[in-house]
Design a protein that fits this description.
This protein has 141 residues and is mainly α. It is 78% helix and 0% strand. The chain has 6 helices and no strands. Helix 1 crosses helix 3, helix 1 crosses helix 6 and helix 5 crosses helix 6. The radius of gyration is 19 Å and the shape is globular. The N and C termini lie far apart (46 Å).
C-alpha cells in the first residue's frame, strides 16, 4: 500500500470515528432535552411518578422556582413515566437523580454536594439513567 493510499484509508477511518462520536453526543444531548421537557411536564402535576418524597430529601436545597418551562405532550410524558418507573425498580439512586435534576430542577453540583461525592460521579450516574430510559423507550417503540 502506498503512503497516499494509507493516508486516505486512515483519514476516512478517522472521519467515520469522529462522525460516530458526534452521533453519540447528539443522541445524549437529545435525550437530555427530552428528559428536560418531561421534567417540566412531571413537575406540573401531570406525572404518575410520585416524586414529592424525593423532594423532601432535598429540603432546603430546592430552587426558588423556575419560570414556565417547555413541556412534552401527554403521550410522550406517559411513555417516559413508564420508563422512569422501570428505572426506579432497577436503579433507585439513578431514579432519584433524574427526579432531583429534571423534575425538581437541582443542579448536578448541588446533588453531588448533598450526596457528598464528585460532580463526575453524578454525571456518570445521569448518563447511566439516561441510557436506561432511552433503552427502555427503544424497546417499547
Amino acid at each position: 500500500m502506498t503512503i497516499e493510499a494509507s493516508f486516505k484509508t486512515s483519514s476516512h477511518q478517522n472521519i467515520r470515528n469522529i462522525n460516530r462520536h458526534q452521533d453519540k453526543e447528539m443522541a445524549a444531548r437529545d435525550m437530555y432535552e427530552v428528559m428536560d421537557l418531561w421534567g417540566a411536564w412531571a413537575a406540573s402535576d401531570h406525572s404518575g411518578v410520585d416524586w414529592q418524597p424525593i423532594a423532601a430529601g432535598f429540603k432546603g436545597l430546592l430552587p426558588h422556582g423556575k419560570k414556565s418551562r417547555l413541556q412534552c405532550d401527554d403521550d410522550e410524558g406517559i411513555v417516559i413515566d413508564g420508563c422512569a418507573a422501570r428505572l426506579r425498580k432497577y436503579k433507585p439512586e439513578e431514579y432519584e437523580l433524574i427526579i432531583a435534576h429534571f423534575v425538581i430542577g437541582l443542579s448536578l453540583r448541588t446533588i453531588a454536594k448533598k450526596r457528598k461525592c464528585s460532580d463526575g460521579t453524578i454525571r456518570k450516574e445521569l448518563q447511566t439513567a439516561l441510557g436506561f430510559i432511552e433503552g427502555v423507550m427503544s424497546i417499547i417503540d
